[in-house]
Design a protein that fits this description.
By secondary structure, the chain is an alpha+beta fold. It contains 8 helices and 7 strands. The strands form 2 sheets. It has a 5-stranded mixed β-sheet with strand order 2-4-5-7-6, with helices on one face. A hairpin with a 3-residue loop joins strand 4 and strand 5. Helix 6 packs antiparallel against helix 8. The radius of gyration is 36 Å and the shape is elongated. The relative contact order is 0.07.
């Protein structure tokens, strides 16, 4: 039997069997001797046997408890960050076989963590190289395009001016695509550090409105802010402004002249919430479950400039702040994005 490969279990069984055998022999001897008080002596022997068995069991389980506590301590050390923590498993038996498997799992996790670390470092360096390689030609192209526009104005060449304006728009689009790709890649690589501190939500939403105010006026749309001006929560301001800004941009892309985008915020018992609502075209039900996928574009979309990265990036940022984002929309009735950040509580 496998159970007896453990010497301690085997020793416990031998001691218990020895006690039982000794009791049987003594009882038989007392019966043979025919003593008048043999019942008393047999009872006394039974009590002694029971005490001996309890003593041996207590010693065994005390030792097992010590072993389990040491093993649990090593597991806690590993969870706390000590990757060298291991459980001693120098003996045979099912328990030590389990310890061996736990040690094997820890070694596998260490190898996987090292591999992921190398991949993240490689990806970080690659992203940095790509960023530098792309920024330089984009900057040069913007300069050249500016020169062409200036020449077109001087020579009153309307065709060249129109084409240079289109070129500038496409360059801006490429730059936005590159920047969003780099941001998402940084999150995927785990190289983004969320530097959180208490931030006033009203001020952050005012920054978002300020960024899109000119566009909203040009398109005849309204951006409305509503919420507790004193409310703050722990976050990285630049990233939250980026996330909400991407949602507001999406709302402006799908609203018409005379419609609005409303940003509201507040606090419930357990969470800080931000909602971005509009009364625009809304989202078709078949598209609703795909809008957070990268590069997803509805076949019904009238937005020819979108690249399908704004909402996925917003979702990534929110989740990096341990938040959730949900969307509710009906075609023709507008769209509402609900962002919730749980408030840490002490139990």
């Amino acid at each position: 039997m496998k159970i007896f490969t453990n010497q301690k279990i085997k020793g416990l069984f031998i001691r218990i069997l020895s006690c039982i055998l000794l009791f049987v022999l003594l009882s038989a001897a007392l019966m043979v001797w025919g003593l008048k008080e043999r019942a008393f002596y047999i009872l006394f022997c039974a009590v002694c046997m029971g005490i001996a068995i309890l003593f041996f069991c207590y010693g065994y389980f005390k030792e097992q408890n010590r072993i389990m506590e040491e093993a649990a301590g090593q597991v806690r050390q590993y969870i706390s960050g000590d990757r060298s923590a291991r459980i001693e498993c120098n003996e045979e038996g099912e328990l030590y076989r389990l310890f061996y498997e736990v040690n094997s799992l820890a070694a596998t996790l260490n190898a996987q963590a090292e591999k992921e670390g190398r991949m993240r470092k490689f990806l970080k360096n690659t992203i940095s190289d790509i960023s530098h390689q792309l920024k330089t030609p984009l900057a040069a192209l913007n300069i050249y395009n500016g020169i062409i526009q200036a020449e077109a104005l001087e020579q009153e060449a309307q065709d060249i001016k129109e084409f240079s304006d289109l070129s500038e728009r496409e360059l801006d689009r490429i730059e936005t695509l590159v920047q969003n790709l780099l941001k998402i890649a940084r999150f995927d690589a785990g190289t983004v550090v969320i530097e959180g501190k208490p931030e006033n939500i009203s001020e952050m939403m005012a920054d978002v409105k300020k960024h899109f105010l000119y566009r909203a006026k040009e398109e005849g749309k309204e951006i409305v802010l509503k919420g507790n001006e004193a409310l703050s929560f722990f976050c990285d301001k630049s990233w939250i402004v980026e996330a909400v800004g991407n949602i507001v941009k999406n709302a402006l892309d799908h609203t018409e002249r005379g419609q609005y985008v409303r940003i509201e915020w507040g606090q419930s018992v357990s969470a800080v919430w931000i909602t971005i609502k509009d009364n625009g075209r809304g989202i078709r039900e078949e598209d609703l479950y795909h809008i957070f996928k990268r590069f997803y574009r509805s076949r019904y979309s009238k937005d020819t400039q979108g690249i399908g990265l704004g909402l996925p990036l917003a979702k990534t940022i929110v989740e990096a702040h341990n938040g959730t984002i949900e969307v509710d929309s009906r075609q023709g009735d507008g769209t509402s994005f609900a962002i919730n950040f749980l408030i840490p509580t002490k139990l």
